[in-house]
Amino acid sequence: MKILSAEQLNEADKITLENEHISSTRLMERAASLVFNEIHTRLEGADIKIKIFCGIGNNGGDGLVIGRLLHKYGYNVEVFIVDYSDKRSDDFLINYDRYKKESSSWPEVIEENTDFPEISPGEFVVDAIFGIGLNRPAKGWLAKLLKHINNSGAFTLAVDMPSGLFPNKAPQKDATIIKANYTLSFQNPKLTFFLPETMNFIGELQILDIGLDRDFLKEVKAVAQLIGKREARQLYRPRKRNSHKGDYGHTLVVGGSYGKIGSIVLSAKAVLRSGAGLCSVYTPKCGYQILQTALPEAMVITDKAEKELSEIKPGLEPDVVCFGMGAGKSQTTANAFKALLEETEKPMLIDADGLNMISENMDFLNALPKNSILTPHPKELERLIGSWEDDFEKMEKVKDFSKTNDLILVLKGSHSFVFSEGNMYINNSGNPGMATAGSGDVLSGIIAGLMSQKYEPLVAAILGVYMHGLAGDICAEEMGVETLISGDLCDYLGQAFLALEKE
Ligand SMILES: NC(=O)C1=CN([C@@H]2O[C@H](COP(=O)(O)OP(=O)(O)OC[C@H]3O[C@@H](n4cnc5c(N)ncnc54)[C@H](OP(=O)(O)O)[C@@H]3O)[C@@H](O)[C@H]2O)[C@H](O)CC1
Ligand SMILES: [K+]
């Protein structure tokens, strides 16, 4: 699904009105009715106190329509006009009049602190103060009102966006923003819904298709692509019936050091569980028995050194090399890594200590095969590209870094991001249970396993990140987020592939 900016959504709005020959008031009615339906379906007429806070723009107009419909269906609803400006929009005014005509009570107007209503924890708040039109931080009594709502403990539903959050810009450090329990957003998700600094404001997210112009939405260049099941399924290639293990490639996992052999066991297991035909592991001598015992399906080749990688001479030609997990970063290993980079022509996957060694020897980047994949977590990323002011600066820096160096960068996080050629893909599977030791080693193995099956590196990165999250989601459903450990992710990959194939 495309993530669009406020400007693009306003443009879509305009084109829809022209092409459908409808008024903006009709479109508002359509959008807000969908929000009403969602509320009505869940509340089923319950006698719960509903307070709707409406701004004076079109987000506020939506709030008035929702209020009118809830009133019509007999809900216990109170509407408040948050009067932060006298530039009321036309559709706000039309719906303000309609609300007054069709409802027995008139909305209360809030103009200062003393007008704030009391809100109890058991109430239901609808936040329709600001939508995508927010263009500066909320200040003064308005910011206090947002805090008042946040502190009430009431269940808060945000219409289109939590008020105070920009759709495609970082908030100021001290900004006041509605902390929604649930966000019903129109047509397309907005970028700040997925960034680490702002994702916690939206609560649970649901996108409502309000029928904006299909052709426009198809053609417009997205700010980013959100990768869900539908998108992942389009990338997935089911196996042909008539095939053998040679068709699915050979992955070489290189890494491990004394005390860190578990990392490559996890990666190698994930390589095989994601469908690679063959997996070899190149590791210091101390890893031999562990690997042969823990993963008999893998072949093991050992370095001449006992405890660390000293020269990487596997004597075979794999389809893809997955390097770095548990490798350590001694000078000996760094030299071996540099030589490996220089000898390898096919795109590689580099993780963990491989990334750290690059950060300490940035000239290694010149030897990295084009289209290789780097999979840093935020700390490893910082070592690679330096620090950033906010999520937006980080994204710009990563885009530049991946473009300048002709590589694909997977930034791991609650929503992992994939960057390639200036484009951004945001993963929408996964859960907090996956923040556990070795989770990244499994991800590297999945992506490398897909690469060896001749998925293009970018496709392998996007699909791999999605499958990793999906395995985690299925696993967490069954065992809970606390209990999940990385080995489980490998074990649940099978269910994840089955779930992907299912409609
Ligand atoms: N896009 C669509 O397809 C549809 C959108 N709908 C809804 O419309 C809103 C967007 O409405 P809009 O009127 O553009 O903007 P807002 O309601 O979010 O904001 C209103 C005005 O508030 C002013 N503003 C911005 N920031 C502040 C601030 N910090 N303090 C005070 N005032 C502020 C700003 O005007 P200025 O001229 O003062 O700058 C805004 O214009 C969208 O989110 C949907 O809910 C439709 O109903 C369906 C179609
Ligand atoms: K809102």
Automatic annotation (TrEMBL):
The keyword Nucleotide-binding applies. Belongs to the NnrE/AIBP family. AMP binds at residues 412-416, 440. The gene is nnrD. InterPro entries: Carbohydrate_kinase_pred_CS, CARKD, Nnr, Ribokinase-like, YjeF_N_dom, YjeF_N_dom_sf. Homotetramer. It comes from Salegentibacter echinorum. This is Bifunctional NAD(P)H-hydrate repair enzyme. K(+) binds at residues 59, 127, 163. Residues 9-218 form the YjeF N-terminal domain. It comes from the Bacteria. GO terms for molecular function: ADP-dependent NAD(P)H-hydrate dehydratase activity; ATP binding; kinase activity; metal ion binding; NAD(P)HX epimerase activity.
